[in-house]
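Anyone able to model this chain together with magnesium ion?
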Amino acid sequence: MIPVAHAIQIVKDQTRTLEFEKVELASALGRYLAEDIVADSDLPPFDRSQMDGFAMRASDVQTAPARLKLVGESAAGRGWHNEVKTGEAVRIMTGAPVPSGADSVQQIELTREFDSGSEVEILAPVTLGRSIVKRGSEIKKGETVLRTGERINAGAAAVLASFGYANVRVGRRPRVAILATGSELVRVDRQPGKDQIRDSNNFSLSAYAALAGATIERLPLAGDDIAQLKRQIADAAKRSDIIVTSGGVSVGRYDFTKTVLQELGAEIFFERVALRPGKPSVFARLPSGTLVFGLPGNPVSVSVTFNLFARVAMLAMQGAAETELETGLAVLDRSVKPSKDRESYLPARLFTNENAQLVAEPLKWGGSSDFVGFVGATALIVVPAGAHKIDNGSVVGIVHLPR
Ligand code: AMP
Ligand code: MG
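re: yes, here you go
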């Protein structure tokens, strides 16, 4: 049995980044940058007005009201490219370039136009530089604005657009095959017969794999049958970067996943982790190079072990800088019991209380098969192995579940 942190490190060590690809910006959301993003221009690219109003020299309106001669108009996309002289003003719109000579903008609400637009009265003095965003004050040309390994969110999409990245280099998505094993399983569209249940892991696993940026193939259900498992895994390995299986990794008489991996010549990196739930988690590599995560069958164990281990590999393959679940601290809402020799990752709901504290409420724990209870989980409480219960009110470590 190896510690969770050790198992995660092994996953990182054994995972290679996939090749990159160029994608159109419009479809880059959620992808990971495979290049540093460099500003191809100053931002703003010219002195820009922040207001609708009038541009002038601040020294002309130190005593207000002051009358100025209106000499032109600078609109967004259509600037006025002459010199503003003393005693003059230019009507200006938000986003328009501030003409040379002008050093301040007074907003329209504090002005009044005269003589059908040939003069303007500035009703209040302005400080030098007011309502002007100077060229290059946000970003200078040549600056690195986003880095390799960052996830492209909506904000990053705007940055990429602004600097002309119509196409962007990102890590390729891993091809992930998902295989649920167990002779008791029937497909979602079938009525379970005697002793049978519907397969649910296929769908939680594909959902989590999608959240981890993978492209997914769901394989047909495999019974607890060595030959069939072997055939399906060997076949999927030909076209998959990662295979995730559920079930069949315990010590039961019909738990065949490990046997099959061995017979296929896989190198097994770990097979037991000091983790609750999810002790019998297997991580291996087939001769084809395909990584295999053999996760236990219990639906909650599947969710926990997928996100602790398999997700790390999927993000690392895409070149993500951050591959582990986001960590945090929270106040425990109800006492929890540790496991003697395993680190526990207990499903919890997070909320903020009236004292602005983040609180973790452990879900009513129906055990690692309680996937209905698990629906409300937004985080896992990390409980170190130990003998003594952890009281409510204690500060505990948490990891956020992807959503
Ligand atoms: P196993 O790890 O194969 O011993 O399975 C542990 C428990 O999880 C058993 O109660 C199984 O019936 C259940 N289980 C295994 N695979 C699935 C699945 N794909 N969907 C729902 N439950 C499953
Ligand atoms: Mg089974």
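Residues 182, 224, 247-248, 297 surround magnesium ion (ligand 2) (CB under 6 Å).
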